[in-house]
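task queued by scheduler; priority normal; single chain, no ligands, no partner chains; default sampling; output format set to structure tokens
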Amino acid sequence: VQLVESGGGLVQPGGSLRLSCVASGFTFSSSAMSWARQAPGKGLEWVSRIYSNGDTSYANSMKGRFTISRDNSKNTVYLQMNSLKPEDTAVYYCAVGNYRGPRGQGTQVTVSS
């Protein structure tokens, strides 16, 4: 399993970012995929999940701001993040299946003015 996240960076409060995660080494199209994040000094937090049939779920604090999607032709899962807040600052990871499953190296998102 290999997962490579990208798209993080520094953004002002209220701004947007789109994270990408390219997957390989397993049957992506039949796998649920999750996004998780870890803020400095805090534990791993579940963000969102997308199932193989396209159904999605979100943590309450992300509902209405974040959108997860997938492109099975590109073995890629995305996380569109809008209306970002300073408390969204974290390293964001994608994972296979459950958010505690195999993860990539992460991509840093910093929300600051």
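post-processing summary
- The two ends are 37 Å apart (CA to CA).
- The mean pLDDT is 96.
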